[in-house]
Amino acid sequence: MADLESILEEKRVFKPSAEFSKKANWNKATAKAMRELGEKSPQRFWAKMAKENITWMKPWKKVLDWKAPNAKWFLGGKLNVSHNCLDRHIEGEGSWRKNKAAIIWEGEPGDTRTITYGQLHREVCKFSNVLKQQGVKKGDRVVLYMPMIPELAVAMLACTRIGAIHSIIFGGFSATSISDRVNDAGAKIIVTADGGFRRGKPFGLKSIVNEALESAPGVKRVIVAKRTAQRVSMQVGRDLWWDDLMAEASANCPPAEMDAEDPLFILYTSGTTGKPKGILHTTGGYLTQATTTSKYVFDLKDDDIYWCTADIGWVTGHSYVVYGILANGATTVMYEGAPNSPAEDRFWDIIERHRITIFYTAPTAIRTFIRWGDEHIKKHDLSSLRLLGTVGEPINPEAWTWYQKVIGGGRCPIVDTWWQTETGGIMITSLPGSVNTKPGSATLPFPGICADTVNEAGESVSGKTGGLLVIKKPWPGMLRGIWGDKKRFRETYWDKFKKQGFYLAGDGAHRDRQGYFWIMGRIDDVMNVSGHRIGTMEVESALVSHAKVAEAAVVGRPDAITGTAVVAFVTLKGGLEGDNSLRDALRKHVAKEIGSFAKPADIRFSNALPKTRSGKIMRRLLRNIAEGVDVVGDTTTLEDPSIIAKLQQPETR
Ligand code: WTA
């Protein structure tokens, strides 16, 4: 635990303005009361939230059934997610929202679409009928592999309307990654698009699906939305156009009555082995947490224009582009492309033109903006902004203060939100009207969330000695399992503190005297590159699958922009020599096996890897080498100490 010792000593404190606090959805007094209720009884707190923020078709009979590691929330309760995100905003009490913008979408080339709640409801009903016509039934898995276009939100909501389980695969994943996920989920249908636009150019998606399906014979149907109008090859009898199906579909589709514990979606995420985990979320608890946190962390109001820059292919996009935001009847902005297309001021231009009030992005993006320079920001009027958020990785205090000053004009509270694919929704965060913030700290657990830092024995630790971040009591948005792998679910998250029944988050953290949480990063072999989780083993398996590679070890190295950079140590087969052209080939290979975002920044060749005499690769040592610091600690167990010097030579380009 010694290396978790924190070096951060941030003393600055930012208080919410009186004006913000007064108008906040939770003012200081209510926030305090909610925190107390959550501490006294998480169940009562969440039941109150579920009642106030969610529309149920039938009330639940019991709030929680908990036999670690299995939780059931809101037992017997019936609801439908698309009903909560759409129908309740166009009929009855909420019907005035019918003509309100649900989605303001902007394509990278500059085309825009504004879709009202009424229109979105109609599209979703139609696509629900399309899915039904294609034989999709309750519980079936539907894979969505799409660019950031409104059709993706339509397809998600349609799945929830008929009780199908969606599994979204981020558009940057390769054919191999798609077939692995499709096969693991047992999906028979994929919804995709011809392609999308990024950095001024169209890219293909359908072509990648075609390749993936060569190794996923279970897929019988592919629905293709048209975005770029590029040429694509369609397989007769299997592939159908979105527009053709929608033209024929009825707009009448009542929402299915779903059980609170019916599966809602699967989302694959990296773990410590080469195989991604299908994180399973269910209906009632997930929606309760996504909706409640959206309302009180982002302080969502009816006149807000909210923009989360995450791709819907990651969990942030699920909970805070679509479900949590639409369930509140708010306006969500979706942008298709890159932040520097056509120029480095694209985001600020979007904020100015759409009068965005709430902006939620990742620290890696913030650090990139800093590097691009303040002149791009000064060109634009950002005075509409009233709240800023960050997610995905620890934010360094310099980036935090820059964000606060340059983007927020010194007037916007910042919510630094810690959570995970597994947690479903925000867990540790400030509340904008009531919590004083400190740059670099995610501050305090959300009411009803029982988080702590503990030592190896499971005992609470505070102060500068860090500990393992755990969640001590079940929460409504928690994962219900790993698709098809009960054993891995138990081993990954629960076995470490089996006796206590704590959830192991996989992050290190420390708490200061006020109980504020400072997240220190992953404690396992998962790297967080630009806020994307990549397993070291995944990259290793990809490298080793290349014909010339004998062995590979991958570690993360701190990087000023991306948080972590991927460094690969590679030994080649039978006396082969590594050079820059092989480096390029290996990078391409990783892109093909996983996706471009997983490409190693640095590849070092060696004729051996540092191993103990028992044959274990010494990763700690590789980490030192990757960081360019002196190799510390005991190296006497090394089988061949001379290889250290060789590995220390940096890559020459
Ligand atoms: C990291 C993203 C520090 C953390 C929602 C976690 C953070 C992993 C923060 C989950 C934050 C996320 N401060 N670290 N505010 N938010 N992380 O599953 O290591 O893509 O375990 O979910 O990101 O990544 P995931």
Mean of residue pLDDT values: 94
Query: Which structural class do you get from the secondary structure elements?
Result: alpha/beta
Helicity range of the residues? 25-40%
The top level CATH class name of the domain at 114-256: Alpha Beta
The main pleated sheet reads as: 8 strands, mixed
Strands in their spatial order, largest beta sheet: 12-11-8-6-7-14-15-25
Features:
653 residues, alpha/beta, Rossmann fold, GMP Synthetase, Chain A, domain 3, seven-stranded mixed beta sheet, 20 helices, 24% strand, disordered N terminus, binds 5'-O-[(S)-ethoxy(hydroxy)phosphoryl]adenosine
Short description:
The chain is of the alpha/beta class.
Structure, explained:
This protein is of the alpha/beta class and 653 residues long. Among the domains are: 114-256, Rossmann fold (3-Layer(aba) Sandwich); 526-652, ANL, C-terminal domain (GMP Synthetase, Chain A, domain 3, 2-Layer Sandwich). It contains 20 helices and 32 strands. Strands 12-11-8-6-7-14-15-25 form an eight-stranded mixed beta sheet, sandwiched between helices. The protein has a seven-stranded mixed beta sheet with strand order 5-4-17-16-18-19-20, with helices on both faces. A four-stranded antiparallel beta sheet has the order 23-24-26-27, with no helix packed on it. The longest helix has 17 residues, at 117-133. The chain is globular, with a radius of gyration of 24 Å. Residues 269, 314-316, 391-394, 416-421, 442, 505-507, 519, 521-522, 528, 533 line the site of 5'-O-[(S)-ethoxy(hydroxy)phosphoryl]adenosine (WTA).
